[in-house]
Structure formats: C-alpha cells, structure tokens
Write a structure and sequence with these properties.
Helix 1 (about 5-15) crosses helix 3. The chain contains five helices and four strands. The protein is globular and about 40 Å long. The chain starts with 5 loop residues before the first helix and ends in an 11-residue tail after the last helix. The chain is mainly α. It is about 40% helix and about 10% strand. It binds a DNA duplex through helix 2, helix 3 and strand 2.
DNA sequence: GTGCTGACACAGG
DNA sequence: ACCTGTGCCAGCA
C-alpha cells in the first residue's frame, strides 16, 4: 500500500465529514485546515487520492464541480438533493445554501 | 536551480 | 457565460 502525505490524509478526512447534500470549496478546506497550503494543493490531493471520498462534494468557490466530472457529480447532487442553481451544463451548486463548514476538531486541543 | 503545469481564487473585460 | 491575467503553492522534467 502506498503511504500518503499528512496533508492529503487531513484533506480526505475533512471531505469524508461533509454531509450528504452539502459541499465545500477547495479554498474552504484549505482555510479550515489552516495549514500553509492553498486551494491548489487541496485540488491536487483530490486529483490523486480523491478516489475514496465523496469528491463531488468538493467544488470550486463558484459552485461548479470538478472539471471532467460534472456529469457524475450532477447525478450525485440529484440523488442527495443538493441545492442546484443550474441542473444543466454548466452545472452549478447553490453555494449559498449548500456550503457547509465543518465544526472544529473534536479532539486535538 | 529553472520553467511549466495543475480537480484554485479573484478581479477585470 | 466566457476568457485573460495575477497571486499562490507544490510536483515534476
């Protein structure tokens, strides 16, 4: 099995906590982790290790899903009842309603 | 070390 | 809605 950077593990952990019907932007995750990384690094993590987490809940700050996956993402949104502003390409999630902010680390203090 | 690329964000046209 | 430029950080040739 391949190891993965702590940062990647952190990102995947957060993504895994995003409830159904909600989403987070790459920047939101980067900001929540409050590490030195930026949204681009979050995007890279998702591109490499995002196969085991609800990746469709991680989108751009605009509400547009990951490039190339808008089709699969839309299917998940319809199934989860994610508030959409546009159910037809360009698919756009209603960030104002779907944006979700995770609660502070339950332990780690 | 240098330069390009990338599942980003934001401002401007 | 679309494209461009700029800022940001990390990975790779």
């Amino acid at each position: 099995m391949s190891e993965m950077p702590e940062f990647a593990s952190q990102v995947l952990d957060v993504v895994d906590t995003i409830p159904s019907g909600c989403v987070m932007s790459y920047g939101d995750i980067a900001e929540f982790l409050a590490l030195g990384r930026g949204p681009r690094q979050v995007g890279r993590v998702m591109a490499v290790y995002g196969g085991g987490v609800p990746w469709w809940r991680v989108i751009h700050s605009d509400g547009t899903p990951a490039p190339g996956h808008d089709e699969s993402a839309l299917r998940h949104y319809l199934a989860e009842g994610t508030p959409l502003r546009s159910a037809r390409p360009p698919v756009r999630v209603d960030m104002r309603r779907a944006r979700w902010i995770p609660s502070p680390s339950p332990k780690i203090v």
